[in-house]
Amino acid sequence: MVEVSPEAKPPVVKLMDYGKYKYEQQKKAAEARKKQKVIEIKEIKMRPTIDDHDYDTKMKAMRRFFDEGDKVKVTLRFRGREMAHQNLGMELLNRVHKDVEPIAKMEQWPKMEGRQMMMVLAPR
After folding, report:
1. Which tens digits make up the pLDDT trace of 67-79?
2. Scanning 15, 55, 71, 118, which has the fewest C-beta atoms within 10 Å of its C-beta?
3. Contacts of 36 (CB under 8 A, 6+ apart)
4. For the whole prediction, is pTM greater than 0.85?
């Protein structure tokens, strides 16, 4: 017996099958889990001396990731003497940000971690 309306005179009660109720709740929870989208973080790796065609290819992949609703982590790897020219890396990441501005927002600003510079972009 389940009390439906305790304020009513007399209180309203109904009989129900508890097993059936638990089963329906389980089905609703499974349906909600099936409909939710898990946001993944995709990674795009570049070098500071990337060429134009390679850059365009990476940007096309980035746009596809944003269309699917995923976040993108852009990683810039420095090797050897490239570490002396970190400003080139910052310029490249600013260029990426400017190119994807209409479809994505910056979630994490570019920062150096060891020999790599990274930033995270999320779809709008």
Report:
1. 988 999 999 999 9
2. 15
3. none
4. no
Cβ-proximal residues to 65 (8 Å cutoff; 6+ apart), any chain: 42, 71, 72
Query: How far is Cα 43 from Cα 111, in angstroms, rounded to an integer?
Result: 15
Whether a cis peptide bond, with omega within 30° of 0, leads into 6 is: no
Maximum separation of any 2 CA atoms in the chain, in Å? 85
> To the nearest 10°, the Cα dihedral for 84, 90, 96, 97?
170
**Residue in this structure with the two tokens 């329906």, named with its chain if needed:** 24
